[in-house]
Amino acid sequence: MKKTLAAIATGMILIAAAGVPQAQAQTKVRIATEGAYLPWNGMDASGKLIGFEIDLAAELCKRIGATCEVMAQDWDGIIPGLQSRKYDVIMAGMSITDERKQVISFAGPYATEPTVFAAMKGSPLLDQNLPTTAVDMAEITPDEQKLIDQTGAAVKGKTVGVQVSTIQQNMLEQLMPGVEVRTYDKVDNLGLDLVSGRIDAIVADRSAIEGLIKAGDQNKDITKFGPAFSRGVLGEGVGAGVRKADTELQAKLDKAIKEATADGTITKLTTQWFGYDTSIK
Amino acid sequence: MNLSVMWSAVPTLLAGVPVTLQLVGLALLFGFVLASGVAWMRLSANRVLSAIAGAYVFVFRGTPLLVQIFLIYYGLGQFQAVRASIFWEILREPYWCGILALTLNTAAYTSEMIRGGIQSVPHGQIEAARACGFSRFLVFRRIVAPIAVRQALPAYGNEVILMVKASSLASTITLLEITGIARRIISQTFAVFEVFIVAGAIYLLINFLITRLIRYAEWRVTPHLRRPA
């Protein structure tokens, strides 16, 4: 019995030892994405991960000389999963915000998109003819504050759906008091409840709303309204999240993102997935 | 471990206790009424009634509660006919969808406990009571019900505890009960372990009180098993 155990132990040591040189030759990076937020990231009918961030991940891995494995992870636990070392990088349409920077580091940003509201065709919210101006909240001018207040007044007392733990949830809670916020784990479920009339409006990234509209026949009446918000509480753009201790990986990814932005690779990829350029200028 | 996060999460999480207790309490109440009807159908000599009840129990015990919640909440809302009907007033609210799903689920399990309890009553005792001239109702009240309750109570206690835990699934349909609030706090603090430990402790406390209550009820219905003082 003892002999068998010793043999197994020796075998395992040998296997482990054989694995080491390979691991050193090429670093392996595990990347988590949500897989439910097209065109950023999503799944095709066969369950394969697709989307802008999946392609970008492959591109960045090539540039930093790593082999990558992209996996799906529920949005809800995506930061805790990074901290507990289930994976090394988050690329999941995650905006760089001060709150998140307190717990993880970011490489990038590699793309950005405005946040918009949407309601069903025929909703009184659409009749208010809110301006569709772009509101850059990095520094809020009096004119922009007026637009924020106007939008806040329109949705006041209404039930607005938002994906939990997102920059949009922050925006509603911080800038638009008096809104009844209902939180969902996935954007798809936002769409289902908007269509069924359980909620009056939703707020999300422009492309996520456009993705919803295209997702099915019953969604075609979802209509965007109001200003296109960006920056400020909405963060400075979408980046790749890494653990604070992984400074080397963060620096490598940051360099790769800057290069891919400069040579137009990201413009090409975003145009392919979004239909327009969302790269960082 | 961030103790200050844990401490500050306590009052916020406790605010979710009423919703959790309402979900469980109402589901158990409605579920018990429904279960009594289902058990009666199940025990009836009518083959059709018995088969309908059997199918209901089979479906709700054989599928995950999470799937049932999703089908009732997101599934039914898909149909224009449902949205146009009078039921939509209730079904559009996540609160009532949660209670409905928990009710239908617990009723399936409870009906089997009631059936088992009633069937455990020795036939001879019923015959003896009938021979003494007891009416059907009196036989039920004096003989069948006490024995059935005694028999079913430990299993029902388990069901109550399972329901408290199952109510956490209501957080998936936007309800802010204990787990829903925990997920919300986590989304702001990213302190998963801390917040879930506090939430878990609250569930533990609720279930501890419930086990005491059930233990007391069991003691009350079994005077013949008590050691003489």
List the helices and strands and how they pair.
The complex is a heterodimer of chains A (281) and B (229).
Chain A (H helix, E strand, L loop, with lengths): L1 H24 L1 E7 L8 E2 L5 E2 L1 H13 L1 E7 L5 H6 L5 E2 L7 H4 L3 E7 L3 E6 L13 E3 L5 H14 L3 E5 L3 H9 L4 E5 L2 H9 L5 E5 H10 L6 E9 L7 E5 L4 H16 L2 H10 L7
Parallel strand pairs in A: 1-4, 1-5, 8-12, 9-10, 9-11
Antiparallel strand pairs in A: 2-3, 5-13, 6-13, 7-11, 7-12
Helix pairs in contact in A: 2-9
Chain B lengths: L2 H12 L2 H27 L3 H16 L2 H11 L4 H5 L3 H4 L2 H26 L3 H9 L4 H31 L11 H12 L2 H30 L8
Helix pairs in contact in B: 1-10, 1-11, 2-3, 2-7, 3-7, 4-7, 7-9, 8-9, 9-11, 10-11
- Quaternary structure state of the chains depicted: heterodimer
Helix count from the secondary structure assignment of chain A: 10
The average pLDDT of chain B is: 94
Structural class of chain B: mainly alpha
Weakly predicted, low-confidence segments of chain A: 19-25
> How many beta strands in the DSSP annotation of chain A?
13
Q: Any idea what the radius of gyration of chain B is?
A: 21 Å
Order of helices and strands of chain A: HEEEHEHEHEEEHEHEHEHEEHH
Unreliable runs of chain B: none
Outline the biggest β-sheet of chain A.
6 strands, mixed
First CA to last CA of chain A: what distance? 67 Å
Q: Total strand count of chain B, please?
A: 0
Shape of chain A: globular
Task: Give the number of helices of chain B.
Answer: 11
The most extensive interface between chains reads:
A-B, 23 and 16 residues
Helix content of chain B: over 70%
Task: Describe what this molecule looks like in 3D.
The complex is a heterodimer of chains A (281) and B (229). Chain A has 10 helices and 13 strands. Chain A has helices at residues 2-25, 52-64, 78-83, 98-101, 142-155, 167-175, 187-195, 206-215, 247-262, 265-274; strands at residues 27-33, 42-43, 49-50, 66-72, 89-90, 105-111, 115-120, 134-136, 159-163, 180-184, 201-205, 222-230, 238-242. In chain A, the strands form 3 sheets. In chain A, strands 8-12-7-11-9-10 form a 6-stranded mixed β-sheet, sandwiched between helices. In chain A, α2 (52-64) packs across α9. The longest helix of chain A is centred in the N-terminal third of the chain and has 24 residues, at 2-25. Chain B is mostly helical. The termini of chain B are far apart. Chain B has helices at residues 3-14, 17-43, 47-62, 65-75, 80-84, 88-91, 94-119, 123-131, 136-166, 178-189, 192-221. In chain B, α9 runs antiparallel to α11 (192-221). The chains are: A alpha/beta (281), B mainly alpha (229). Chain A binds chain B through residues 76-77, 79-80, 83, 99-100, 103, 161, 164-165, 169, 182-185, 189, 192-193, 196-198, 218, and chain B through 74, 77-78, 83, 92-94, 172, 174, 183-184, 186-188, 190, 192.
